[in-house]
Design a protein that fits this description.
- The protein is of the alpha+beta class.
- Helix content is about 30%, strand content about 20%.
- It contains two helices and three strands, in the order ααβββ.
- The chain has helices spanning about 5-15, 35-50; strands spanning about 55-60, 65-75, 75-85.
- The protein has a three-stranded antiparallel β-sheet with strand order 1-2-3, with helices on one face.
- The longest helix is centred in the middle third of the chain and has 16 residues, at about 35-50.
- The model is unreliable at about 25-30 (pLDDT under 50).
């Protein structure tokens, strides 16, 4: 069992970004988004270590078949295609029917 000080040390490392925080098994992100997160964290740490200006950009586009394209730009572009998590439409928050606006 971890002591209080070991837990605090781990939390401090997570805050500094030296290790990725642990995600629960019920997390909505699938395992195939792990390379995307690793790329983002790696580029972020590279920018922090760089002695000067840096810029990072993340674009997410909707593709067909329930997929999304994630493009991480930081000097170079890294392209990933991942399965989309449960959409808002599937959750019943947005309906397919057109609602009529009051006049």
């Amino acid at each position: 069992m971890a002591t209080f000080f070991e837990k605090e040390k781990t939390r401090e490392k997570e805050r500094r970004g030296s290790i990725l925080p642990k995600r629960s098994m019920t997390d909505s992100l699938s395992g195939e988004s792990d390379p995307v997160l690793e790329c983002i964290c790696s580029k972020y740490q590279d920018l922090l270590r760089h002695d000067g200006f840096g810029e990072m950009r993340i674009d997410i586009r909707i593709l067909k078949r329930g997929q999304k394209e994630v493009i991480v730009s930081s000097g170079k572009q890294f392209r990933f295609v991942v399965d989309s998590p449960v959409s808002v439409r599937d959750m019943g928050i947005v309906s397919d029917e057109k609602s009529e606006l009051p006049q």
